[in-house]
Amino acid sequence: MSDMIDQVTVFLENRKGRLAALCRALGDAGVSMHAMTVADTTDYGIVRIIADSPEKALDTLINAGFRAKLTKVFAVAVPDRAGALADLLEALDKAEINVEYAYCFAIEGDIAIDVLRIEGNGNVKDTITAAGFRLLEAHEIYA
Amino acid sequence: MSTDNGPDEMTKKCWDEKYYQPEIERMDQEDLKLLQLERLKKVAEHCYRNIPFYRQSFDAVGFNPETIESLADLQKMPFTLKQDMRDAYPFDLFAVDVRDASRIHASSGTTGNATVVGYTTSDLENWGDCFARAIALVGGDSTSIMQVSYGYGLFTGGLGAHEGGNRIGATIIPMSSGNTKRQVQMLKDMGSDILACTPSYAMLIADTAVEMGYDPATDFKVSAAILGAEPCSEGMRNEIERKLGVTVVDIYGLSEVMGPGVSCECRYQDGLHVAEDHFLIEIVDPDTLEPVDEGEWGEVVFTTLTKECSPLIRYRTRDISRIIPGECACGRTHRRMDRISGRSDDMLIIRGVNVFPSQIQQVIADFSEVTSYYQIILSSKGPLDHVALMVETVPEFSFDEVRRIEDLQKRIMAELKSNLQISVEVRIVEPKSIERSEGKAKRVIDLRKAGE
């Protein structure tokens, strides 16, 4: 699915210094991160990263001993205004598309990028486009 | 109890020394050895005549039971292993017809077959006598009230203690285990003098009593606890003694050999007097199987001297202990074994349940989401053992959502619970965080003793 982008997902135990070690490994390999979120539980966290070079990030992390995988997610350009994300999610909801998780980051001033992980495919692209939003392509994110 | 000095802790220990069978418990060592020799000859012939397994194993090493002249001849006899008992399932190691047995007990057979043991009426009387000695040595007699909070059933704890209570003529409250608040209420309302259960359960009963607003050390009449079926650290003993206001004696036994009462501590709490009129104890080097010097540590081996239904010759318990040299101030002449310091194999005793790491391995092998590397961490959470199992996921496992990981944890936990009857916390850890070893992998980290 070319309209999806690669997110690097890393399983991290809640141990002192693990997140720093992860970032250092990527930094040393010259990988730059655009976004990072951590879903944390008592014993472990799941780190989700949008990086400029996902393949390289993945190889780097696996070689450094991390449990890492690539996950396909949607990146949507959302106008930086109140209610814009609500519009997008309502449109998905109406089309009965379930969002597993979502997070935002901004690259430029007036556009926020929303990353959506969606279970199953459905007509995600069409739904998003019909609602007036634009799906970002890999080269727009990674570059 | 003989003393009626109220609940003060000091006075509780000051009962007169009592013996249930003084003529046996204080028997001269030389006379005891003669008794043992006579009984060893009998049991060896009994085994040879009535159990094909022993006929074959004796013949295989060229041992003729009629040639026994001294206790040293025991060394010529072959060992019996737990696996031999499993292979004999159900009755192949019985020396009498199962219909002539009075009762059957069995260990949990979660891997392979259970080990089944039978008792004739005489066996049950002897067992009861062994446990009754424990009741007497904590000051109990026919006027005592004893609450039995060991599980009743195929497990030997409940009915073994019960049998002991019967033999000495005590009043028995057969609570079995479970429903802890009711245990506390009965312990208080019945005015029991003696509590018999596992150490961890005694601790739970004590803590529950405190939660219910009692101070069992002063509010309850109980003055002694006969605790067994699992290891009890000295720290745990002290805590139970303080909380319940009791003297704790450690009782040892295993169902293969009989059940609780094979050996028991006296008030001096310095080793467990082995019922040497019923059991021959040997301590051997687990590698060479040669006897160790007196006082040295090694694997405990028992030969039953009086059992009719399920006699055992040189049964390797895998428990590590030693004979404590010297006489005991209590007046009992039967030698003392030290408290079990470990196992010669890797069997774990978790909340009184025997668990082999291999059983855990079997369970996780069925989960394609995890690798075969695992580690078990045992710790104490309050009075109970806590078990954590660390596993690593395979690279293919999709962990992108928390619920996938939680789902995996839950499924492994449920499988362990149904297979091993223990609750295990499953922790998913990062790859390579479980130690790889070229030799014998350290699969078990036991932190339970660290808190002493």
Describe the model.
The complex is a heterodimer of chains A (143) and B (452). Chain A is of the alpha+beta class and 143 residues long. Chain A folds into two domains: 5-72, VC0802-like (2-Layer Sandwich), CATH 3.30.2130.10; 73-142, Alpha-Beta Plaits. Helices cover 31% and strands 41% of the residues of chain A. In chain A, strands 1, 2, 3, 4, 5, 6 and 7 form a seven-stranded antiparallel β-sheet that branches. Chain A is globular and about 45 Å long. The two termini of chain A are 19 Å apart. Chain B is built from 13 helices and 20 strands. In chain B, strands 3, 4, 5, 6, 7, 8, 9, 10, 11, 12, 13 and 14 form a twelve-stranded mixed β-sheet that branches. Chain B starts with 8 loop residues before the first helix and ends in a 6-residue tail after the last strand. In chain B, 44% of the residues are buried. Classes of the chains: A alpha+beta (143), B alpha/beta (452). Chain A binds chain B through residues 9, 11-13, 18, 39, 41, 43-44, 46, 48, 62, 65-67, 69, 71, 100-101, 117, and chain B through 392-393, 395, 398-402, 405-406, 427-433.
Summarize the structure.
Chain A is α+β, with helices and mostly antiparallel strands. Chain A has helices at residues 18-28, 54-63, 84-94, 124-130, 138-142, and strands at 5-13, 33-40, 44-51, 67-79, 99-108, 111-118, 134-135. Chain A folds into 2 domains: 5-72, VC0802-like; 73-142, ACT domain (Alpha-Beta Plaits, 2-Layer Sandwich).
